[in-house]
Structures are given as C-alpha cells and as structure tokens.
Write a structure and sequence with these properties.
It is a single chain. The protein is an all-alpha fold. It has 12 helices and no strands. The two termini are 27 Å apart.
C-alpha cells in the first residue's frame, strides 16, 4: 500500500486561522479597522466641526445634542475624538515607520559587519536604552518644540534602540545559516547579502515589534500632549483632550474619561494584534492548521 500523502498546507489559510483563533485578537482587528474608518471619514461621521466654539453649549453633560458632552469652549467632545483618530494614527504609524526603517538599517550594519562597528553601535544603543523612552521623548520634544513634526521625531528617537537591538540579534543568528555562507562563497556583494538573503528572514519579528510599538508610540504622544510638550490645542489630540478635561474632572469626568478610554482601546487593540501576529508568524506553527 502506498503511503498516504497529506495535502499541502495553504499558508494564507493557516495564517488567518492562527491569527483569528482568539477573540481578543479579532476584537483588536475590528477596533483598529473602526479607528481607520473613523479617520478616513471623520468629516462625514462627526456630528459637528471639532473646532467650532458653541458658547451656548459650554460644559454640557452628555445629551441628545452632544452625545459625549462639550468642553469649556462648547466644542463637541465626540467630534474631537473622531478627528483625533487622524493624529493618533499619524503619530502611531509615522513614528514606527521612521524608527523601524532607521533601526533596521543600523542593526543590519552592526550585526552583519561585527567587530568595532558592532561595538560602537551597540554601546551607543545601550546608552540610549538606559534612559526611559518617555523621559527621552520629553527631552527631545522640549528641544524641538511642540507640533506634530517635533513629536514624531522625539517618539521615533525614543523607539529607535529597540529596533536596533532586535534586528542586530536576528542578523547575528541568520548570517550563520548555510544558505548565507553559500551565497558568500559565490561572491554575493555585502549589499546583496544583507538585503536579499538576511533581511527577508528577519521580517517576522520586525512586523510584530512594529505592531506593538505603535501602541507605545500613541501612549508617549498622549503623555507629551498631556504635559504640554506635544500637540497643543486647538488640535484635536487625545492627550491634550485628557489634560483639558482634567481641569473639570469632578464636574464633567466624561471630558477626560472619553479620550482616555479611546487611547486605552487603541493601545489594547494594537497589543492584541501584535500578540496574534507573533503566533501566526511563528515558524514553529507552520505546517499546522
């Protein structure tokens, strides 16, 4: 009797099944899709102009006209939260792309060439990692000034060391594999070796790291805005909204509670998606359904 052969595993099917195997991951995906749609269609979804001051509706409780109340200038809280998704996604995605791109290149160089290059880069990275990311971002934001550009540069620099260490560690492991040695023996250039043979095999942990770091980037941006060193009013940033509502915490807790819950939901969703991606991209799970 011939041996029964198993049908080939569909990698996309396996990836989707593992990714969506837990309810919290599905919740995270749905929540992030909702945030993206809110950012795209904010002018259509928002009931009011987020910057329009309606002085007759100052500090309103949640009601039929203002579902989440209004702030001290009569601006609709729900509309500002909806428009705030744009700044949240811009900072979260933008800073992670900047930090991941620079960190990948620096870590790739350090891990591939080794020697004194590795020592200099990694000791510099260790020095930066000795400073908490929020404190480092605070210092850089204070030097650069407030605004979206200053916040993105500050948060990107604070997240950079994590990507350098991650990619450097992956490169040190991958470059010892036989296929890399075979490519080196036939005269493949350093650039070709790094970007064609080594980097593609380091992408799985990088994708997971990027997803989880988006949540940290959003938290740092919200903290900077809360402390007055990030994105200042009248921009509809969730961190600055929490600070504005803090002044009326006893009388109108919804002003701080609503944007605070929005931050918590987005960060939680991104962390759950990152956790699901880690399982789905784990090579040890390949070949399983």
């Amino acid at each position: 009797m011939p041996e029964e052969t198993l049908p080939p595993i569909n990698e996309l099917r396996r990836f989707v099944r593992v990714l969506c195997s837990r309810g919290v991951v599905v919740f995270g995906i749905v929540a992030i899709i909702a945030v993206i749609l809110a950012a795209m269609f904010a002018p259509i979804i928002a009931p009011y102009d987020p910057y329009a001051q309606m002085l007759d509706d100052v500090l309103q409780q949640p009601n039929g006209k203002h579902l989440l109340g209004s702030d001290s200038l009569g601006r609709d809280t729900l509309s500002r939260i909806i428009f705030g998704t744009r700044i949240t996604l811009l900072v979260g995605v933008g800073t992670v792309i900047i930090a991941a791109s620079l960190g990948t290149i620096i870590g790739l160089i350090a891990g591939y060439f080794g020697g004194w290059i590795f020592t200099v880069i990694m000791r510099f990275t260790d020095g930066i990692m000795a400073i908490p990311p929020l404190l480092l971002a605070l210092v850089i934001a204070a030097l650069l000034g407030t605004g979206v550009k200053g916040v993105m540069i500050a948060v990107s620099f604070a997240l950079l060391p994590g990507y350098i260490r991650l990619i450097c560690g992956q490169v040190l492991s991958v470059k010892e594999n036989e296929y890399v040695m075979a490519a080196r023996s036939v005269g493949v250039s350093h650039i070709g070796m790094m970007f064609r043979h080594i980097l593609p095999n380091c992408l799985s942990p990088l994708i997971v790291q990027m997803t989880m770091m988006m949540g940290l980037a959003i938290l740092i941006e919200a903290s900077l805005s809360f402390l007055g060193l990030g994105i200042k009013p009248p921009s509809a940033a969730w961190g600055s909204m929490v600070y504005d509502g803090y002044k009326y915490l006893v009388m109108r807790p919804i002003l701080s509670l609503a944007p605070g819950l929005a931050i918590m939901m987005v960060v939680f969703a991104l962390n759950m998606i990152g956790d699901g991606l880690r399982d789905a991209l784990d090579p040890r799970l390949r070949g399983t359904l």
